[in-house]
Fold:
Amino acid sequence: MSPAQLIVASLALPLAGAAGIALSGRWPNLREGVTLTTAVALFACVLGLLPGVLGGALPQLFVLEMLPGIALGFRVEPLGMLFALVASGLWIVNSIYSIGYMRANEEPHQTRFYVCFALSLAATIGIAFASNLLTMFLFYEALTLVTYPLVTHHGDAEARAGGRTYLGYLLGTSIGLLLPAIIATWAIAGTLEFTPGGILGGAASNAALGGLLALYMFGIGKAALMPVHRWLPAAMVAPTPVSALLHAVAVVKAGVFAVVKVIVYVFGVGTLAKLRAADWLPTVAGFTIIAASVVALYSDNLKRRLAYSTVSQLSYVVLAAALLTPLTVVGAVMHIAAHAVSKITLFFAAGAIYTASGKTEVSQLDGIGRRMPWTLGAFSIAVLSMIGLPPAVGFVSKWYILAGAVGAARWTAVAVIALSTLLNAAYFAPIVYRAFLRPPAQAAAAHGEAPVPMVAALCVTAAATLALFLYPGPLLALARLVGRMA
Amino acid sequence: MTFAHLPALEVVVPLIAAPLTVLIRRSAPAWAIAAAACSFSFVAALLLAAEVAAHGPISYHLGSWAPPWGIEYRVDALSAFVLVLVSGMATVTVPYAWRSIAAELPRDQVYLFYTMFCLCLAGLLGMTITGDAFNLFVFMEIGSLSSYVLIALGRDRRAQYASYQYLVLGTIGATFYVIGIGILYLATGTLNIADLAQRLQHVENLRPVLAGLAFITVGVSLKLALYPLHLWLPNAYTYAPSAVTAFLAATATKVSVYVLLRFYFSVFGLHLVSVTLPMPEILLVLSIVAIVSASLVALYQTDLKRLFAYSSVAQIGYITLGMSLTSRAGLTASVVHLFNHGITKGALFLLLGGVALRAGRTGLDRVHGLGRAMPLTSLGIVIAGLSLIGVPGTAGFVSKWYLVLAAIEAGRWWLAAFVVATSLIAVAYVWRFVEAAYLSEPDERTPEPGEAPLAMLLPAWLLVAACVYFGFDTSYTVEAARRAALLLLGAAQ
Structure:
């Protein structure tokens, strides 16, 4: 297939998959077969685009002119390639996990669940491949809307409240801040195409650009920069597979992906470096890293702790991109992938623990590692990655970020990363300690591992966390290509 | 040749169809006649629009009497666009009415609905196409009188009160309009719109002209439900038969907006309206109050028809807001929103008609769990609701884009912020339906599972599809609105 056809297929496959899932809803095995087939086919399509992009090509697809002068169009550049690879690859694993989780927990509305999941992936690919801000915005909003039914899956009062917070923050920021920012960019620059070096250089006064940057950074609510992070813990009312793939990978990464896109391709690193009005960004990101870690430290609920850890880790990407050096940009891009595989493992483990034992709080986990060695083993590997220790992939991205920050003599950023590493250890290590070294509570009911599909899935992602440390090859190559444009 | 007489036939065909339905007095043939007349008007409007796009404005002299003595029908970029909207909505509504009206009206009254519908259509098309200010008044009365009857046909007895309320306010509006025209006639000695514009430039004593402008503004504002002259609208939309609500919401107020645009930009001119008088500022303030207050009131409604009726008042505020900016982007936003809001509201009210049919009423307490009972209807309401909010990929987004762009280009950042902030209120009221339909369990008031009849669902979904289509392919709507804006500003200078 030609690259343009592969782009079409990558967008159409999940949509067709959603239709297939809806039609086969009456036969669960067939339905799950459709999900898995779609996921594998999608990954194959995305993978098919990789060699060209690594070779420096930028496959494009023009669909139509949405507004005069603004296309609905797609262009696969290295950053989008990496994001699409991570999201579509993890969708396969997540689907296997979902099957185990949804069946073991006898969740209702499973067809709707899988349909929305497939639609979310279509929206994610749309964001990854979008060639301009309007196209990206279209899919960005679509992603919010199709994940809403997943967040409110249980339909009870808690889900309703969580859904309101979710929608309120995400639509509030995107319609209230991001949309005006995009329209202002159009009014100033006369184009919305993502262009290496940016489109805003010299086009407006420094104050206007500074204001615009603020609109973008807080308008992209999915990046969860404080104070627009509250939707993420609220989204934890969703079933765990949703938290795992969407609220650790697709949705939040769409946020930081958009942030990096805006910094590299809309403003341009050169323009921002000269802009004094952009100096606040590393500070806000640094504050988010530390503050979210502290909240995580005091959260007893496991999923909530993971959610705040995600808020903190997302700001690593923002901070790294905002330091505006090629090395930190490489680190930022790598961290999108590194955090994805590690955090999805942690969520998988949290869901497995809940399914096998019904436990949701950290304080209940004493000795659980003996009953669920595989799950907690995988969890521990992911923890290494979150802290940034070898031999896990988190080390690689942190290395680049730190190297860039030291090289640019940004000592505050170095200190923030060092402190947050300690905090990461402080809120993750006790879980591992409890699970393996504390004796189980007396009254604990006997249970073993979660169902096989779930354990298999989390082992795969844990293995990926290690494998990507040893062989970061193509991902690092993509990240370097982005770094070259910075 | 008939093609040359298309401007006249556009109006005359539905006008003649009306008495025909009375002669026959049976519902099925009356329906067929109405359907044929509406479709004819729609095709004629499309042909006229194509002709205007290719060869410029059409001036048709009724009875071959040359203007300014005879009545002129004038089709230009703006009126052609409005003709397409009005006749298109009628063509979608009539098939819908087949089942919907049969369920809501006694058998022996059904033909009357089609009579009044054709008259109303003729009135609205006539208002749009005519180039004569007094002829416009005549058509305004035809359209209004028939719509009073249409509203009074509602099943609920409160429909008669709603109709009466509209009758009183509508008559005041029409009277104000005709007083304004009278003053202009005294000042200039002409009633032809183009001629009026010419002669007004040479009028020395401006005071009566300004009085005329004031009368026309108030009169037309009553018809277009500009805040605070909107009081007739919520009741009228709530209690009218579903098909009537959908048709009127999508067209009647829009045609009145068209009349206001016409008078401000083509007759009085930008100088008189914005320099001699502060009309843009007044419109701006009223629009802002309309958007905020009506959106907030919508938020607290318990009946969906009423909720979306208030939302209409707010959305009309966006249209007049674009108008008040008097810039190219502003007028483009205004005209494009006229169309986009027309199809969006049309879709919503048609779908709500299905809900009313199945659940008896459209109260929010009737739609608990509707997502499962009527999946297609619910999904349609959600999609049209997204268009109302202005989510990208829907028609409403295009309007919002131009409105915000116009505000930014005018350097009014606060206005851009206002527009996006208020669209978040729309999220809140649309989500009241979403939570009721999808997150609440069905109870005894929820209708049994089953969709509305296909004859109602199909037209409604046609409009839902249009909401999405015109969100992606904006070449027709934006291009037409852009031409209309250029025309208005060209005429205004």
In short: Chain B has two domains: 1-277, 278-493. The mean pLDDT of chain B is 92. The two ends of chain B are 36 Å apart (CA to CA). The beta strands of chain B are 58-61, 72-75.
